[in-house]
Amino acid sequence: MKNNNRILKYCIILVLSIVSVACGQTNTNQKADMYEASELSAMMREMVIFSKEAKATLAAGDTIHEVPKHFYDLATQTATRGEHLEGAFLAMVPAYIQALKGIERRDSQQYYYDASILACKSCHGVYCGGPLDVINQL
Hints:
With about 140 residues, this protein is mostly helical. About 65% of the residues lie in helices and about 0% in strands. It has 2 domains: about 1-35; about 35-135. The chain has helices spanning about 1-25, 30-35, 40-60, 85-105, 110-125, 130-135. Helix 3 (about 40-60) packs antiparallel against helix 5 (about 110-125) and helix 4 (about 85-105) runs antiparallel to helix 5 (about 110-125). The longest helix has 23 residues, at about 1-25.
């Protein structure tokens, strides 16, 4: 009988320990759901969508008719860690803006599309290299 009571006590302790550990764990998806992109990050996601569409348009031999106007506000978008205030970031923005202007002029759109992607690669080579895999596919 003593052995049965001892085994029962150990089982109860084991179950309570498992429940305690399980209740102490947090759902990692909950944190991801709460993430809010910075202005700059949100704009860059839109830039990727535009660039994919532009690439397909050019590959089909068609003309890109419009560049989203708010892309010209790239330098004024707030970044996650304040990169938008750094001189190096601000010095790279004009290359992208000039490429967009070339696309809008419909002047050698493939050349200016390629220049826009090169500007993205240059910046992401210094800041936040994570998106380079996506950029390299553009």
